[in-house]
Amino acid sequence: MVTDELLVLVNKSEENNILPAEFIKLINHEMTHLMGPVASVIVEDVMAMLRINKENIDRRNLPNLIDLLSNQIDDPVKRIEFQKNIYPQIKQYILP
Q1: What angle do CA 34, 43, 10 make, to 5 degrees?
Q2: What is the model's pTM?
Q3: What is the H or E stretch that residue 34 is in?
Q4: What is the pLDDT of residues 63-96, one digit of tens each?
């Protein structure tokens, strides 16, 4: 999604770029809804790959995080459902 420029961050001030810890709960909830209990392991693995943790998710990493998590969902219908559910919820975190 990032490479297709379907999800792009808008100008945001450098201050307060770290997302709240509750954000990862939102991601885990959506992933678990679609993938079951293995979702939390997948989320942790993707975050480790990006060298981030729930205390330091920079807003600039959000498109990559969502893109990589989406790619972990093998079922195309579930992948689209994840994206459809998560994008409206993350607007509050990425839009000014």
Answers
A1: 95
A2: 0.76
A3: helix 22-35
A4: 899 999 999 999 999 999 999 999 888 777 666 5
